[in-house]
Design goal:
mainly alpha
């Protein structure tokens, strides 16, 4: 809601990405929510050597998926 509105008001591009989309971009199979969150935590720890919450892990991996697809 609010992010979309601010982007629109300022003429900024916005791309909405679902969890299924970013997980697919990383080559993950479809997983149930709890399994996907656990995999996100483990993946971030493996890639970056840090322990983070499931929400932070998913945010990091969403960014990684974007970079892999767009840069």
């Amino acid at each position: 809601g609010i992010v979309e509105l601010v982007c629109e008001q300022h003429g900024l591009p916005l791309k909405l990405v679902s969890a299924i989309q970013w997980r697919k971009a990383l080559g993950w199979p479809r997983l149930k929510r709890d399994a996907a969150k656990a995999k996100a935590i483990a993946t971030v720890e493996e890639l970056h050597g840090i322990k983070v919450s499931d929400d932070i892990a998913e945010s990091i991996l969403l960014g990684l998926a974007y970079i892999r697809e767009n840069l």
